[in-house]
Please model this.
Amino acid sequence: MAHVVRIDANEQFKRAISVLNELPGMWHSRGDDITVELWLLDSHFEALVKAGVIPANGTNGKEAKVHGKKAAKKSKSR
Model:
C-alpha cells in the first residue's frame, strides 16, 4: 500500500529526505516550494514516523487523502 504525506515546513522536508535517502526503494515528491507531497511505500512511511519526522496520528505532515475513481454502487433490485 502507498501513502501520500503532505509536508508544509522546509525543515521537516529536509529531515524527511535525509531519512528516505537511507532506505531502499523508490519514493516520489510532488509540489512547490510551499507544500510538498511525498508518495511513499509502507516501509518509508513507518521509517518517517519512527524517526519522528511525521507524527503517527497525522497532525502536521499528515497523510493526505487520495481521491480517485470509485465504482458505482449497484442498487438492490427486488
